[in-house]
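Lab notebook, design round three. We kept the backbone fixed and only want residue identities now. Task for the bench partner: fill in a sequence for the structure below.
Input structure tokens:
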């Protein structure tokens, strides 16, 4: 068997980079993206990091600094980021179908079946292609284990002379050792803030030190996970690629409201909209749900915190927004307490199965006729929304109120997913 070979493609400051795709004027300015009702920074440009703005910085605390340095703020525009992430995945899938979508901005590629004479040059070509076709800068690390590939991308980000790609396979042993020495133990994939102090107590300060630890000792300290980390840092693959063919287990959509509320119409509108999103996600993965759970809660930080759940089972597994919404509304009615000020709602669909595996059961509880009608109805709805834009046709309950929507006062347009938000260009001849 050939030795495993991984590339990690990691987008730089992903949310900020997505905003810059359509705002090239922001190229060298400090930019932050805010989440949770514009409460805190969830992404920062290089320039914003240099100003000392930490991850999760509360916007109100840094208001003066933002103003003083002209920091440009955006409300998180997840529709845009999700779409750009999908475009990058599609491009990478053209390079190889052996891909693991690890997070919204990181993918591992298995390079074993590709014929690559020079890994660094290959990495730089991929990077340039993503930049040219999508407009997002990336860092690429190439190694024989995922942990080393991850370490390589972190080095790439801090060393501009690497020009975006680092190959830990071809170089000399001494070169590789130096990159490991330059990586603090806290920054190793899988270590983090909890294990770092334990390792420092053992005089393990860098990735190089950890690679030199005996696997037995690592296992005593951190369990099997620690042993794997040591092996992976030495270049032995213990964590194989997790393909995207894995069947999804649950779909969840949740929202914190713009303001706390006890208005039943606001709750109904929120639950209807969250259900519509979750059911659409099911249909686009060709799945049906047998179970749903709805949760509403008050603010955890205020006195008298309440959180209520209801679980529902569908006799006929379904992905029909109308059917699921109707049942969740009934459940909501039984959970609602008029004296509570609700802060958040979640809709979870679980017990999922592929839509083509639906079978009639012995007792006739599964209604195949209704199920096929429902499937056609949803196909028509999705086709119209795909053609004319999201939410062109929707369930009336979604429109009972907009008051639940989180505050996103600084959001950029939905450039790539709404016709009305398409950017315009002026050309003068
Ligand atoms: Mg990233």
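Proposed sequence:
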């Amino acid at each position: 068997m050939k030795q495993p070979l991984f590339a990690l493609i990691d987008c730089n400051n992903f949310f900020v980079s997505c905003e810059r795709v359509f705002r090239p004027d922001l190229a060298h300015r400090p930019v932050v993206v805010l989440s949770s009702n514009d409460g805190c920074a969830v992404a920062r440009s290089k320039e914003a990091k240099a100003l000392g703005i930490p991850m999760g910085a509360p916007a109100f605390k840094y208001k003066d600094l933002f103003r003083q340095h002209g920091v440009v703020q955006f409300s998180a525009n997840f529709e845009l980021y999700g779409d750009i992430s999908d475009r990058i995945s599609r491009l990478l899938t053209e390079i190889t179908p052996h891909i693991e979508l690890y997070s919204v901005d990181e993918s591992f590629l298995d390079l074993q079946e590709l014929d690559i004479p020079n890994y660094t040059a290959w990495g730089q070509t991929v990077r340039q292609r993503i930049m040219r076709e999508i407009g997002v800068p990336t860092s690429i690390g190439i190694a024989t284990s995922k942990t080393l590939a991850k370490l390589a991308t972190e080095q790439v980000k801090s060393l501009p002379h690497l020009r975006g790609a680092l190959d830990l396979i071809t170089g000399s042993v001494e070169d590789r050792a130096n990159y490991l020495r330059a990586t603090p133990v806290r920054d190793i994939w899988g270590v983090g803030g909890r294990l770092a102090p334990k390792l420092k107590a053992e005089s393990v300060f860098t990735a190089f030190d950890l690679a030199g630890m005996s696997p037995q000792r690592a296992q005593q300290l951190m369990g099997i996970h620690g042993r794997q980390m040591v092996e992976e840092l030495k270049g032995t693959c213990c964590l194989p690629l997790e393909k995207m063919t894995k069947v999804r287990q649950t779909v969840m959509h949740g929202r914190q409201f713009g303001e706390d509320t006890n208005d039943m119409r606001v709750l109904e509108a929120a639950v209807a909209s969250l259900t519509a999103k979750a059911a659409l996600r099911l249909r686009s993965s060709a799945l049906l749900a047998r179970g749903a759970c709805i949760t509403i809660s008050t603010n955890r930080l205020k006195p008298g915190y309440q959180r209520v759940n209801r679980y529902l089972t569908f006799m006929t597994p379904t992905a029909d927004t109308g059917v699921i919404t109707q049942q969740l509304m009934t459940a909501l009615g039984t959970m609602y307490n008029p004296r509570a000020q609700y802060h958040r709602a979640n809709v979870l669909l679980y017990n999922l199965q592929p839509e083509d595996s639906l079978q009639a059961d012995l007792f006739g509880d599964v209604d195949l006729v209704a199920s096929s009608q429902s499937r056609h109805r949803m196909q028509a709805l999705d086709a119209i929304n795909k053609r004319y834009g999201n939410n062109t046709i929707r369930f009336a309950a979604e429109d009972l109120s907009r008051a639940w929507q989180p505050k996103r006062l600084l959001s950029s347009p939905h450039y790539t997913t709404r016709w009305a938000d398409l950017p315009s260009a002026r050309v003068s001849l």
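Keep this in mind before ordering anything: The radius of gyration is 25 Å.
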